[in-house]
Design brief:
The protein has 92 residues and is an alpha/beta fold. It is built from three helices and four strands, in the order E-H-E-H-E-H-E. The longest helix is centred in the N-terminal third of the chain and has 11 residues.
C-alpha cells in the first residue's frame, strides 16, 4: 500500500521548513509513501524551502495558482498517487 502525505501551504515558508524537517525523521520502507506539497501561489521563500528538501524526501511539488485551501486540496487529490491521502498542515 502506498500513502500520500499532502501539505497545502501559502506564505508560511518558515513553518513549512520546520514541518519538513520533522518529516525527514519518518523512515517508512522505500516506495511506500510520497510527500506532495501544494504551493498555493506563495510569494515568500516556499520554493527555496522545497528545493532544500527535494533530495531528502520523496517530495513532489505542485503549484496551484488559484487561491484557497479547497483549490489546493483538489490539486493534491488530482496529483496523489497513494491509495490513501494523509492531510497535514504546514505548521505541524
Amino acid at each position: 500500500m502506498k500513502l500520500t502525505i499532502a501539505i497545502c501551504t501559502w506564505n508560511r515558508a518558515q513553518l513549512l521548513k520546520r514541518t519538513l524537517d520533522r518529516i525527514t525523521r519518518i523512515t517508512p520502507p522505500a516506495n511506500t509513501w510520497e510527500l506532495i506539497v501544494i504551493n498555493n501561489n506563495s510569494a515568500d521563500e516556499t520554493e527555496y524551502v522545497l528545493d532544500f528538501y527535494t533530495s531528502r524526501l520523496p517530495l513532489r511539488r505542485i503549484f496551484e495558482s488559484q487561491p484557497g485551501l479547497s483549490n489546493a486540496r483538489n490539486a493534491a487529490i488530482r496529483n496523489a498517487t497513494g491509495e490513501y491521502i494523509i492531510w497535514t498542515d504546514d505548521d505541524v
